[in-house]
Amino acid sequence: MPAPRLSQSAEAARAAAAQAEFNEKKWVWVPDDKEGYLAGWVYNEDGEYGDIIMAAGGEARRVPLFILSKMNPPKFDRVDDIADLTFLNEASVVHNLRLRFGSGAIYTYSGLFLVAVNPYQNLPLYSDAIIHQYRSKRRDENAPHIFAVAERAWVNMGEERENQSILITGESGAGKTESTKKVIQYLAAIAADVHQGPSTPSHSRSPTITGSQSLTNMPSIGLPRTNSTRRGQVLTNSTTGSGFALTAKGRLGLLERQILQANPILEAFGNAQTQRNNNSSRFGKFVRISFAPDGSIAGANIDWYLLEKSRVVVRSEAERSFHVFYQLLAGGSGIKEKLLLGGGVEDYEFLNKSRREVDGVDDREEWNALKAALDVVGFSPSEQFDLFRIVAAILHIGNIVITSTRADDAVMPDPSQAERVCHLLGVPPAEFTRAVLRPRVLAGREWVTQARTGQQALDELAALSKTLYEKSFGLLVDRINQALDRPSSKSTFIGVLDIAGFEIFDVNTYEQLLINYTNEKLQQFFNHHMFVLEQEEYSREGIKWDYVNFGLDLQPTIDLIESSGNAGAIGILSCLDEECIMPKATDATFTHKLHSLWAGPASDPDDPQQNHPGRDKYEPARFEQGFLVQHYAAKVEYRTDGWLEKNKDPLNDNLTRVFASSTERYVSSLFADHVAAPIPGAQTPMFSVGKKRGMKKGAFRTVGQRHKEQLASLMGQLMATQPHFVRCIVPNTNKKPGRVDVPLVLDQLRCNGVLEGIRIARLGYPNRLPFVEFRHRYEVLTPGIIPKGYMDGREACRRMIGALELDEAIFKIGMSKIFFKAGVLADLEERRDMLLYDLFSKIQAVARMWTARRQIRKILNRAVAIRTIQRNARVYGELRDWPWWQLYTKVRPLLAATRSDEELRRKEAELLLHKERAERDKQEKEALENLKMSLEAEKNKVEDELEAERALNLDKDVLLERSKKHEAELEEEIVELQADIDELQSHLDRAMAMAKDSEQRHAEQRDMFDQAAEHLVRLENEQKQMKAREDEVLMELTNQNEEIERLQNDLQTLQKVSEELKQLAIQREEDLSRARERTDSTVKELEGKLEVELRNKCVLSGN
């Protein structure tokens, strides 16, 4: 034992030295762009600035004092609860997380919830010994752990008979899936131990688990705190709890093992490798584990959300498709021949264009684990083959080659791959090929054949692959629920939510909007629970409290996305649904409509759309077709390309009819909701049992509407539970163990509301108890304070608090509850445990005294009995040869007393008969109760479906009303436009008539000009003949010739003017009139000149 004392002394010496160094200087945290925060000490303060000496390197920096953060003393390093820090700031929080993460402590409490940092490596923190260590222990008795959160939820469920939920949230790659599995592992283990031995869900001190044997093989992170082993504690040989010495497989029942083995199945079909996570859940799930009143598991149920089905067809080069594709090709050697799979990953188009392997993952071993899990859950070989049939068919669909002719018609040059698909899915190859290449569409009342282009046929095959996988995944979950579900009206449940985290990619599409919208709702639920409800309860209880607004109201962003127009504003999803039913709508018109609704000018102050606070969260994209939304985590830019098709989720009706009539029952059941009537002779397959997620015939639902309904159902369930929060953190983007990217962690802490949760927990009173419960639990600490008889609960608590001598600053007494600061109840529990320990020790001493005395009395009575037996034996020896005794022994069987034995035997037989009847009646009663519960469950399911239909009808009514209003406005515009067209047509007719009149006049004038030209020619001839005689007037004739040439030029000018008048006649009537008058005057002037010239010539000729 000297070594531990020496180690403790050395640790104490190091702590003292660190504290002494800390006391010598004023240590602060200095912001740093690269490292987040760096440690330093203040060398000099000069007004608002200070000189800081950095601890690393001794660099001197001059920075403003207001950006510095105070540093906590060294004794607070690696503290279990961040709320215990003296100085609560971002630097201190991330420094504590970094120190704990470096020492292997990945879990840290943060007020009322748990922060889990992904270690990117396997740690020995989840063994049976660790489960035993956290069983029936309070939170402060052990180091932070995910098991402690599960234990608190299990205890609250048992004590308060209230449903619980554990919300595991965080960014992609933060470890949410693994945390979910550990919670389920713990709940299954403790529920299995209910029937293994006595175990009560109490957080009272258990002295039987602190022996040295239970602490030998545990890692340091899992060890209990030093103050949990108290002086004078009784140690026994029972160092392991009931059943914990066994292996998990040995102690778990079938139902518990089925619940655990459902995870490998869901991970194989629903998880994939991404750039940030090797086992990323590409769907959301809410696992409800139901518990019977005695604490044992009564059943389980799984709801799923937002399967990323597009990953089946396309993904980035650095990522993989779903695990099951690679597992089947790597390990399914026996089944691959039946599925016609003869190649590797590189031989299939849907797989060979992206990453093919994951470091540290053996797909063959994962295949064996998947097969074992399917066997445990209860999948028959035929059911397993049906699941892999769909996977193989999708791979074959990806290899179908489609080319185009010169006319751009799609053709299939090699039908072998299509024949493989048809063989696996049980459909005729000719009908399948026709449905892909030349489907029949309804045009009016007639069916016509439509030739598809090559790209359209490829898109059709991709849509078919995605639909097949999604429908098969839905029936897979239904089949798992069928195996796990045990309906009971008396059971309560613990729900574990694991859903995709907030995502920001280079190109964000419709899927990212739905995922981020879901996380926005969950963050709002967290804020509402942590901040709003907390402060509202203070107000209801009459506690003096200044309302603190932490600025985390996410409702404007949520309304921006989901508002359906009831409050006057139309959200993004409702606008998208509205555009999906418009005949000529496109992604561009949808984007333009969004911009006009949320980013247009606010001209009407009374319009709720223009005054909605969500307008501040919306911004049009600058360079691409899309928009930006300000989420709680960051501003995200979304590209709207292909949103209308994604929201409609279309599939060729020809293909659905072909697969609905498949000869394979499983395949036909996938498309059973696409036929108006059931197929004759077909039987209901086993996979079709359970909840149907497909839409009903004739009830068109878009992807956005279905997701809103599922999310509303999820939030309703969460609101009806007592939540527990686990915030998962990504330490670095390189998936390297032991590395912490401080700016990345800080950004997540801000987004997750961790710091705000700590602040309100420290400002407020997170622990509270009703008066009755507080008096019932802690009255033992104040004996004689409360007199006999009735006393008001508030007054009783006030007297007890006075006797406990608590500071008024650490508690508040409300109207129905008493509230405490963080840590006060833990101190009261310590005092209560010590008192109960002393009382139980005295009771044990009295009990031992009583048992010892009873043992002595037994010994004394045994001695008296021996002497009595000896005396009777001697008397029997003396009477054995006495004749009268012999006669008595022969007559004794004939006495009436001896017949009582036969009567007793007969009564026993009758009793046994009645017991058998009672047992049969009990079995019949249980069968009827089970039938009743199943009928009630079916009734609740029908009611939920009816409520969803009602909500959908309300949305459709609002949409129809808006459409009618829009239609009326368009009709009014059409009438106005028609009136304008009529007026313009009348103007055009008048202009054309005027142009025609002008042309006629122009023709008449041209004829006159022609006649004048002919006359001029004759005059020229006469002038040549008379040239000899007219020498004296030659100069005058020359002048006349020049005048004639000028007239010809004027004639050409008039012709050009006439053409211009013809062109302008339609446009302006006034210009035509002026041109006509000008032409008339010119003609008259020319005619006058011509007449003058003719008269002159006549005069000259006369002379």
UniProtKB/TrEMBL annotation:
Residues 904-1078 form a coiled coil. InterPro entries: Kinesin_motor_dom_sf, Myosin_head_motor_dom-like, Myosin_S1_N, P-loop_NTPase, SH3_Myosin. One of its GO terms (molecular function) is actin filament binding. It holds the Pfam family Myosin_head. One of its GO terms (biological process) is actin filament organization. Keywords: Actin-binding, ATP-binding, Coiled coil, Hydrolase, Motor protein, Myosin, Nucleotide-binding. ATP binds at residues 170-177. Residues 195-238, 599-618 are annotated as: Disordered. The keyword Iron does not apply. One of its GO terms (cellular component) is myosin complex. Residues 711-733 are annotated as: Actin-binding. Residues 197-238 have a biased composition (Polar residues). Residues 77-833 form the Myosin motor domain. PROSITE patterns: IQ (PS50096), MYOSIN_MOTOR (PS51456), SH3_LIKE (PS51844). Residues 23-73 form the Myosin N-terminal SH3-like domain. Belongs to the TRAFAC class myosin-kinesin ATPase superfamily. Myosin family. This is P-loop containing nucleoside triphosphate hydrolase protein. It comes from Lentinula raphanica.
